[in-house]
Amino acid sequence: MTICARRTLESSYGPVAVWITVPREETETGDFLCDYGIAGPRTQRRGSVMGIDAFQALQLTMERIG
């Protein structure tokens, strides 16, 4: 898992770290998958988003993160 983007944001509760991995191709479907994480004082969330290609996987991951 290689991180391609990372940012630390400031909230009223403290710093919130956000990261996205480089899209990887799923061997069974040929679709691409991006993992992401959000970690802060009041939230801990990880997930994965799938797209038909690497670009769509990144775009949908950004939308999911908000």
Q: Could you give a short description of this structure?
A:
The protein is α+β, with helices and mostly antiparallel strands.
Describe this structure in words.
This protein has one helix at residues 54-65, and strands at 3-11, 14-21, 24-25, 32-40, 43-51. The chain is an alpha+beta fold. The mean pLDDT is 96.
List the helices and strands and how they pair.
Blueprint: E1 3-11, E2 14-21, E3 24-25, E4 32-40, E5 43-51, H1 54-65
Antiparallel strand pairs: 1-2, 2-4, 3-4, 4-5
Secondary-structure element pattern, one letter each: EEEEEH
Q: Which spans of ≥5 residues are poorly predicted at pLDDT below 50?
A: none
Structural class: alpha+beta
Beginning-to-end CA distance, first to last residue: 22 Å
Number of DSSP helical runs: 1
Our Rg estimate from Cα atoms comes to 13 Å
Proportion of residues in extended strands: over 45%
- Count of beta strands: 5
- Quick check: average pLDDT? 96
Task: Count up the domains.
Answer: 1
Cα shape: elongated
Notable features of this structure?
alpha+beta, elongated, single chain, 66 residues
